[in-house]
Amino acid sequence: MIGIAICLDFCDVCETPFSELDVDVMLVPSMGNDRTMHGHQITAAQVEVRFGTRSFVVQHPTQTALKDHRIGSILPLLKEPSAVSLEELGQKSVWAAYK
């Protein structure tokens, strides 16, 4: 089963209903900065531990996040989503592949 969440609906730890959904994959289109992506990592870690859910987040940066030339961030379907640094998630090319 696949769930689809929109940005703050997934990363807002206090308000999200998505940490209660038992799905296999969560797809999350997002727009934000490093703080937003960190929230995505926290929720992704919670649903992975609770249900084994893998989360895939693609984030377009806000203007405040453009200072390091990233064109976006991708949180791939990781077993441990919080183990990756925000810098590693940043994309400076059109797309990067993950192992």
Protein model, in words:
The chain is an alpha/beta fold and 99 residues long. Helices cover 26% and strands 25% of the residues. The protein contains three helices and five strands, in the order E-H-E-H-E-E-H-E. It has helices at residues 8-11, 34-51, 86-89; strands at residues 2-4, 25-32, 54-61, 72-75, 90-91. A five-stranded mixed β-sheet has the order 1-2-3-4-5. It is globular and about 35 Å long. The two termini are 23 Å apart. The mean pLDDT is 81.
The averaged pLDDT comes out at 81
What kind of oligomer do you see?
Answer: single chain
Number of strands: 5
- In which range does the helix fraction lie? 25-40%
Order of helices and strands: EHEHEEHE
Beta-sheet strand percentage? 25-35%
Structural class: alpha/beta
Strand order of the largest sheet: 1-2-3-4-5
Radius of gyration: 13 Å
Largest sheet: 5 strands, mixed
Distance between the termini: 23 Å
Low-confidence stretches: none
Give the overall shape, derived from the CA principal axes. Answer: globular
Topology summary:
Blueprint: E1 2-4, H1 8-11, E2 25-32, H2 34-51, E3 54-61, E4 72-75, H3 86-89, E5 90-91
Concise summary:
With 99 residues, the chain is of the alpha/beta class. It has helices spanning 8-11, 34-51, 86-89, and strands at residues 2-4, 25-32, 54-61, 72-75, 90-91. Strand 2 (25-32), helix 2 and strand 3 (54-61) form a beta-alpha-beta unit.
Which features would summarize this protein structure in a list?
3 helices, alpha/beta, 99 residues, five-stranded mixed sheet, globular
